[in-house]
């Protein structure tokens, strides 16, 4: 691939764009162009459209990187999008058609997320969900310094419950046609590690990296490992 590939980073539920603040400088130092786009966390369909607009704004080939629920979003945003050349899943969902984040989380034992989530009604029959701010560090970011995890807890973006239960729209998800890479921690309390392995292997990932002891917030606690995998993906794509 002769054109420079730009990395577009998409955060997940209970997070926000600053989640990538440790990853971006490492990519920049490696000569990789990267931008983080806000993710409204309203529905897979509308959030994917938001990412498509971000991809259009780049004006060149894009490697999409999604964390957690952001994996479902990039899976949809990349469908029939010639600008997207690869997908990186960071402790992320890679759903097939008709699957959703809630179902995939519960398919394998081990998640304790449900016990920590607090709903707030939106007035239309749906709810915004947040992780209890006092429980957030232990649930979401157990390997992040406590002071930093406390800030994450207070800056988290709520997700609409509909988004987590919305069936993946595309009949053929993008990971079936695009190369993919997966990185996640083996101490993830949100998405069971068995589920993360299942999705990575099902996608036929080019590379799967498990980070020992890393939490769901692996891009914050281990930004070097995440940046290294993204750089590995860029190198692979440049050789195609």
From TrEMBL:
Highest rank taxon of the organism: Bacteria
Please provide the record's keywords in A-Z order: Hydrolase
Q: Does the keyword Transport apply?
A: no
Location of the AB hydrolase-1 domain: 7-228
Task: Fetch the InterPro entries from UniProt.
Answer: AB_hydrolase_1, AB_hydrolase_fold, Sec-Metab_Biosynth_Hydrolase
Q: Where does the UniProt annotation place the signal sequence?
A: none
Give the GO molecular function terms: hydrolase activity
Q: PANTHER family under this entry?
A: AB HYDROLASE-1 DOMAIN-CONTAINING PROTEIN-RELATED, ESTERASE_LIPASE_THIOESTERASE DOMAIN-CONTAINING PROTEIN
Name of the protein in its database record? Alpha/beta hydrolase
């Amino acid at each position: 691939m002769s054109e420079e590939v730009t990395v577009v980073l998409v955060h997940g539920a209970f997070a926000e764009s600053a989640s990538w603040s440790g990853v971006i400088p490492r990519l920049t130092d490696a000569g990789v162009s990267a931008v983080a786009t806000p993710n409204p966390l309203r529905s897979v369909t509308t959030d994917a459209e938001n990412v498509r607009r971000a991809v259009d704004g780049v004006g060149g080939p894009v490697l999409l990187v999604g964390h957690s629920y952001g994996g479902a979003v990039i899976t949809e945003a990349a469908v029939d999008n010639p600008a997207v050349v690869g997908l990186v899943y960071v402790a992320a969902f890679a759903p097939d058609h008709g699957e959703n984040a809630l179902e995939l989380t519960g398919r394998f034992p081990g998640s304790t997320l449900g016990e920590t989530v607090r709903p707030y009604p939106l007035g239309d029959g749906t709810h915004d969900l947040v992780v209890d701010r006092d429980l957030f560090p232990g649930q979401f970011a157990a390997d992040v310094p406590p002071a930093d995890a406390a800030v994450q807890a207070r800056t988290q973006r709520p997700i609409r419950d509909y988004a987590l239960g919305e069936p993946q729209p595309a009949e053929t998800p993008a990971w079936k046609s695009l190369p993919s890479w997966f990185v996640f921690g083996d101490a993830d309390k949100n998405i069971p590690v068995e589920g993360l392995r299942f999705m990575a292997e099902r996608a036929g990932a080019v590379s799967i990296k498990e980070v020992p002891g890393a939490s769901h917030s692996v891009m914050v606690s281990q930004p070097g490992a995440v940046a290294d995998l993204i750089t590995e993906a860029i190198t692979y794509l440049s050789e195609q």
